[in-house]
Every structure is written in C-alpha cells, then in structure tokens.
Amino acid sequence: MTLLGVEGLSKEFGGLRALNELSISVERKELVGVMGPNGAGKSTFFNCISGVVSPDDGRVIFDDKDITGNSPETLAQAGLVRTFQHTRELETMTVRDNVRLAAPGQPGERTIPALLHTESMQEQEQKVRRRADELIEAFELDHLADEYSSNLSGGQRKLLEMARVLMLDPELLLLDEPFAGVNPTLTQEIADHIRDLNDEGMTIVIIEHELETLTELVDRLIVLEQGRLLVEGVPEEVLSDERVIEAYLGE
Ligand SMILES: Nc1ncnc2c1ncn2[C@@H]1O[C@H](COP(=O)(O)OP(=O)(O)OP(=O)(O)O)[C@@H](O)[C@H]1O
C-alpha cells in the first residue's frame, strides 16, 4: 500500500527546472534511498514534500490525503517528519533539553502561568521526559545528556537529530544525508538505528551521497537526474545501470 505519492511535481528557480514532472511512490514500511549527481533535485524533492517550498505544479499525497503545500508543522502532526542536511539543534542547550523540546506542544513553549499547571499537563510533561530519556539511551547519548550540544561531534549531532525527530513519532521519516561528515563507526551505528526503525514498521526515505552505506541499507534506490526520475529498482541493478554510471561520470 502506498504511503507517499508524488505526482507530476515541478519546481523552477529563476528559469531552472529543479524538478521536472517527477512522479514517485513509496510503499508503507519501505526503506528507500534517493541518489543522483549534484543539482539533480534531491533536496528540492524533500523540500516540496515536507512543506519547506511549494511546488509550481503537481501533487503530494500522504496517507491518501493531498498534502501539497502544507506547512511542516501540519505535516509533523500528520506523521511526516524530516531531518536536514545541516542539523538544527540549539547549541546553547543541553542534549537532554534539545530532545525534550522537540516534542509537540512541549512546556518550554507555554505561556500559561504555573497556577494553571494542571495535573494533566504534569502527566504530559512526565511522558515527554520519559520518552526523551528513552531516546537518549537508545541512541547512546546518555553520557552526553547534560553536555551543551555545541560540544558534540558531527556524528553525535546526527544521532541527536534522529532522537529529536523521533519525539514526533513519525510514520514517514525523510532523512537528508544522515551520514554526511560522520566517522565510519558512527555511520554504522546510525545505519543500524535506521534499520531497526524500519524493522519496527517506520517508512523511511534517505537522501545520501555516501553510496556504499546507502546501498547496503535500502530495499530500493531511486536515481534523480535533472529533476526527473532516471532509474529505480533494487540497489545492485541500479548501480550497474549504464544510465546511472553515465550520469555520475558526467558530473
Ligand atoms: N532556493 C533555491 N533557489 C535557487 N535555486 C535553487 C534553490 N534550491 C535549489 N536550487 C537549484 O535547483 C537545482 C537542484 O538543486 P537541489 O539542491 O535540489 O539538488 P540536489 O540533488 O539536492 O544537489 P546536491 O546533491 O548538490 O545537494 C540546482 O541547480 C540548484 O542550484
């Protein structure tokens, strides 16, 4: 069953067609990789799905609903969540607070005075704290929980970013270059987490330049070139496809 459907998506930037009538679908519980040479339209594809930019043409269907142009907040509530190539944690906050504050409607955002601090709000806060602690432990960040996130390495920041998005309990997770700038040990750790999440039933789409890890991880590869779908299929076949080799050689 299809969870995400992209139909005839187009986006121009000053006459340059970043996406050119792109149509792709992702099945529930699939783990899909998106690759393509620089400028192929991969980020624009994610940006159009996740409400960061509005497409000029075409539709995005998520869970049988037309979500074209919906805001990132609305999409997160619906279960569609993304990470960014450059992580977006708050450097002046600890790892623990960064994870807690990623929860929807978390206490830090409330302006209601303490007098109105009801029992149900306290319960909700406790739930957020418990979930944050679980994720910090699952991502082996416990020894860093009270560190400012500015003290984290690139790889540790990627783990923190994953913990943060999981606070939103996504059904579809879009990961933008989760292995970029990450050392080999942490790359393997992040790949294992992605596989576990997918085994638990989460649908995941990954943009990545690090093709070795990507092809080992995913069920299916989608290759974009000049805003169009070039080739898709099982990783071994896609990587040996003449058109793909040519697209990368021409970079
Ligand atoms: N906000 C923008 N304004 C102007 N041009 C843009 C914008 N976003 C993307 N583009 C252009 O659209 C084309 C596709 O870019 P995009 O970032 O989607 O490709 P990509 O496949 O993600 O590339 P990379 O692998 O280098 O990140 C590029 O030519 C890029 O310069």
From TrEMBL:
PROSITE patterns documented for this protein: ABC_TRANSPORTER_1 (PS00211), ABC_TRANSPORTER_2 (PS50893)
Keywords per UniProt:
Amino-acid transport, ATP-binding, Nucleotide-binding, Transport
The UniProt entry, under InterPro entries, shows: AAA+_ATPase, ABC_AA/LPS_Transport, ABC_transporter-like_ATP-bd, ABC_transporter-like_CS, BCA_ABC_TP_C, P-loop_NTPase
State a GO cellular component annotated for this protein: plasma membrane
Asked whether the keyword DNA-binding is assigned, the reply is no
| Gene3D superfamilies (alphabetical) | P-loop containing nucleotide triphosphate hydrolases
According to its UniProt entry, one GO biological process term is: amino acid transport
Q: Give the Gene Ontology MF terms in alphabetical order.
A: ATP binding; ATP hydrolysis activity
- All copies of the ABC transporter domain together span 4-251
Q: Which SUPFAM superfamilies match?
A: P-loop containing nucleoside triphosphate hydrolases
Q: Which family does it belong to?
A: Belongs to the ABC transporter superfamily.
Function summary: Probable component of a branched-chain amino-acid transport system.
Q: What is this protein called?
A: Probable branched-chain amino acid transport ATP-binding protein LivG
What species does this protein belong to? Haladaptatus pallidirubidus
